[in-house]
Amino acid sequence: MKFRVLAAILLSCHFAFSQTTLITADQLFDGNAMHTNWGIVVKENRIVEVGPVAKLRTKPDTTISYTGGSIMPGMIEGHSHVLLYPYDQTDWNDQVLKESRSLRAIRGSVMAKRNLMAGFTTIRDLGSEGAEYADVAVKQSIEQGITIGPRMLVAGKAIVATGSYGPKGFHPDVHVPLGAEPADGNDLIRVVRDQIGNGADFIKVYSDYRWGPNKEAMPTFSLEELKLIVETAKSSGRVVVAHASTNEGMRRATLAGVVSIEHGTDASDEVLKLMKERNVALCPTLAATYSITKYRGWDGQLPEPEGIKAKRNSFDKAIKNGVTIVAGGDVGVFPHGENALELTMMSDYGMPNIDVLKSVTSVNAKVFKLKELGELKTGYLADIIVVDGNPEKDINALKSIKMVMKDGEIYKK
Ligand SMILES: [Zn+2]
User: Fold this and answer.
1) What is the pTM (predicted TM-score) of this model?
2) Measured in angstroms, how far is the CA atom of residue 45 from the centroid of ligand 1?
3) What is the predicted pLDDT for the residue at 175?
4) pLDDT for 353 beyond 80
5) Distance CA 117, CA 122 (A)
6) What is the rounded CA–CA span in Å between residue 177 and residue 205?
7) What domains appear along the chain, each with residue ranges and CATH number?
8) What would the DSSP string read from start to end of 80-102?
9) 3-state secondary structure of 158
């Protein structure tokens, strides 16, 4: 009797899970190239076949067709902060100082879901900004099926040099919570290990910050300190990413062996060449610079302020030097769910649309070492989206998401 019940359960499970679904649309971008009249077959949480619809061998149980749309790999956000929201709504200082970690974690869960619904099935979250390990909790909540959101790679607290980071300007006797964890010298070993132990998937370090005599960005950690951080993280199988906007901050981070540099505005050709040589990627966060400049009063019209011109120029220089560009906008500085702003800006700043599409899918997957993601290939995980229109022709199509599938499950249809 027991056996029969078990067999019945197994049979019904087998039936339910063996459904194959064919998804078709006018175009299919597989992570490398755009194809016309291709389809993709999904079974359970895997891709079982991809190719011209007429040549597919699998007989699907169901078919979903999107006329006028394009199938793509789920997009990968290279630089998010689910624990932050736009500074024109609440100043960064007030978010860090006045809001409880609990409130921030709850809001973070809602923001994470907005990333998924915008077609980003994976996000690399670059620091909790004073909310301790709330990013780890948001990730766990998604993994345990409590809340809905993208796959997450999280940094945890992030590391800053003592005295460099904010919030600033308080009486020295008052201990205000900082936006990241300060550490220096040999203590960096303990802090890196502690962050790993608390759930950091990678280590984020600020290799420069606005702490110069005139509040300008200046390098923080020495090359030796950065090397110590990279070496300690590496022995646990983790990589380090560096916030850096100054040329010297970028140079040190590159020599230390970080995997990517975030922002990277003031790079010289020499440092960009070094990045290319050492296989260090750049995450330009164009949308953050654009948004912050607007919060400071720019109306978005021509002529563009100097800071925006500098950003255009540095992005162009990085491409010309052949540096790998990972797509990441610093979303959280601007609204979660509007992640595609970075992609439309990359296009506007001169990157061919097909390269923007590669950057936000296969390139990000490669740099972030996400196996079985970022491409539509047989055997890969079924993280698939459909956008309205052809994003190779008009990048704005990425703002119009028709379908989102993560791990074989449809979240938006
Ligand atoms: Zn950031």
Assistant:
1) 0.95
2) 31
3) 87
4) yes
5) 11
6) 18
7) 2-73+375-412 (2.30.40.10), 75-367 (3.20.20.140)
8) E-TT---TTTS-HHHHHHHS-HH
9) coil
